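User: Can you recover a sequence for this backbone? Please restate the input before giving your answer.

Assistant: Of course. Working from this structure:
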């Protein structure tokens, strides 16, 4: 079961970061290591299907299964590793990890596939049509759920999106710099970037980072020139429309991506209360506010949050959610999420809305957002909430879909207090 702390975490990515931090690897090897780990997790179901075809479905020890997945991933999903190297390295790894007696089996299975690569590729392509959950390596219940809503073609586009390494986007921090000086600095630092354009984001506010040295080495990052953030996450702040001088509550603030953007829109004038029930993650809000120069932010753990009823101009609830809109960034999420979790999260989301609503002043705006694609956490939840809150009306609502909008999935609703 996904626990509260876990929803915000990228397990694989964090473990990888930690392991790579200690490893003295050149950048190209780091990138390959990342690609192998994330790719094998993403494509696990399809890789297991390939293995099962050659083993009559016999189960292997988990570590041996992983090695076979690793070898096959290189054969079928990577161009830059020659087949003979992928086979040789996997066999050597098998020996090193105590599978010496199975080295012949590993060698035979992989070599067999190098000889039948065209046929296997055709079978994999067919699988995407006949059994999309296996062909695109996602849980069956999730694919059935999405297919019921969007049909096969759009669902396949979503599954394909989820299986691709996501782009990195940088949001300009106007509290510290403007676009011209930031881009000049990037050119000096060897950052390659592209401009992007989205109707909810002003010109030259978000850039796609095509290639860059490690962020820790970039002065422009350390000095707070930008924040790493998908364009979809800016929609909630756009609909919140924060103004200088206001009192604003960000109820689920950590790690602070939206809080620091709200502070920038407020031009650091007014009062922004950034709250969260996770004290460890709240430290990240503090770090980000310090780096980005967001000085109008008051950090408040949920347990000590004290606000008078009807005292807040605007509230953002960027709720903990199933994260199904950001599966390309959370590679192992698809294998952890369970159907029952969605109903449990919806209850928690409803409770957050119920807690926040009395704090809103008459005429104030409450923005509810998730990075989920599931109606129970989005539009249907807002309708449930509105049914019990005659004092609020739905003013605007928007869903972003990766296969339609080309960004992470997101949902945002703006409610107005009468
Ligand atoms: N708004 C953040 C940003 O832009 O960086 C991301 C917020 S994340 C989607 C959801 C946050 O809600 C997590 O940091 C989690 O700790 C917090 N959270 C979960 N349950 C909560 C609760 N009952 N009250 C307050 N915060 C909660």
């Amino acid at each position: 079961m996904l626990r509260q702390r876990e929803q915000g975490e990228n397990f694989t990515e964090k473990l990888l970061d930690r392991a790579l931090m200690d490893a003295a690897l050149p950048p190209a090897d780091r990138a390959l290591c990342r690609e192998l780990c994330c790719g094998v997790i993403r494509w696990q179901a399809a890789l297991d299907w390939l293995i099962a075809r050659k083993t009559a479905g016999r189960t292997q020890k988990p570590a041996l299964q992983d090695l076979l997945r690793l070898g096959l991933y290189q054969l079928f999903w990577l161009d830059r590793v020659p087949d003979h190297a992928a086979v040789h390295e996997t066999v050597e790894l098998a020996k090193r990890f105590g599978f010496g007696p199975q080295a012949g089996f590993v060698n035979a299975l992989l070599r067999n596939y190098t000889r039948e690569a065209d046929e296997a590729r055709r079978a994999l392509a067919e699988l995407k049509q006949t059994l999309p959950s296996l062909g695109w390596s996602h849980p069956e219940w999730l694919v059935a759920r999405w297919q019921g809503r969007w049909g096969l073609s759009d669902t396949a586009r979503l599954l394909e999106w989820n299986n691709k390494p996501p782009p990195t986007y940088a949001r300009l921090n106007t509290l510290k710099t403007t676009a011209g000086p930031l881009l000049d600095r990037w050119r000096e630092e060897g950052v390659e970037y592209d401009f992007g354009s989205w109707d909810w984001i002003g010109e030259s506010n978000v850039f796609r980072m095509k290639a860059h040295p490690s962020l820790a080495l970039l002065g422009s990052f350390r000095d707070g020139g930008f924040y790493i953030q998908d364009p979809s996450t800016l929609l909630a702040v756009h609909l919140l429309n924060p103004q200088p001088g206001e009192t604003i509550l960000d109820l689920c603030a950590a790690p602070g991506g939206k809080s620091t953007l709200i502070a920038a829109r407020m031009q650091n004038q007014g009062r922004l209360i950034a709250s969260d029930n996770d004290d460890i993650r709240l430290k990240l809000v503090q770090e980000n506010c310090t780096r980005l120069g967001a000085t109008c932010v008051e950090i408040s753990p949920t347990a000590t949050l004290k606000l008078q009823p009807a005292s807040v101009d605007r509230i953002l609830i960027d709720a903990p959610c199933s994260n199904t809109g950001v599966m390309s960034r959370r590679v192992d999420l698809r294998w952890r999420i369970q159907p029952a979790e969605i109903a449990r999260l919806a209850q928690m989301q409803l409770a957050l809305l119920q807690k926040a609503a009395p704090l809103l002043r008459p005429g104030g705006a409450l923005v509810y957002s998730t990075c989920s694609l599931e109606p129970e956490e989005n539009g249907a939840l807002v309708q449930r909430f509105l049914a019990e809150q005659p004092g609020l009306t739905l003013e605007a609502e928007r869903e972003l879909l990766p296969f339609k909008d080309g960004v992470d999935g997101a949902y945002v609703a703006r409610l107005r207090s009468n």
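That completes the design. DSSP finds 19 helices and eleven strands in the chain.
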